[in-house]
């Protein structure tokens, strides 16, 4: 496995939270995407939420990155203690991503099936049978295309 990162959900104040974390840990915030940045509003986000944070990242040192997003009620997301954090696994290959995702999702719940997305060759979200939330990804060639 390439890396493991904490991924936090916030109720509309992700930008404020990451400014705070940056003041605590230092470093530079990167990878900021607002919902407005997705082509053709692919997620059907209402106008009032388009400037909310879809993704943000802050390095914590030695290859660990704190990541986050705004959970939007307009997309049917209800934030509560217990669903405000995920563990993100960056796999070394598409095959490893598939194996990790399948094993973690067995007996649990799949929120988003493992699939190709704009930022990754494979990406999926699930909750395991113990209630732990996981994001599994393999950036692969999608990450190279996104960087260009």
Automatic annotation (TrEMBL):
Boundaries of every Glyoxalase/fosfomycin resistance/dioxygenase domain copy: 10-136
Gene3D superfamilies: 2,3-Dihydroxybiphenyl 1,2-Dioxygenase, domain 1
Protein name: Glyoxalase/bleomycin resistance protein/dioxygenase
Entry-linked CDD domains: PhnB_like
The organism of origin for this protein: Truepera radiovictrix (strain DSM 17093 / CIP 108686 / LMG 22925 / RQ-24)
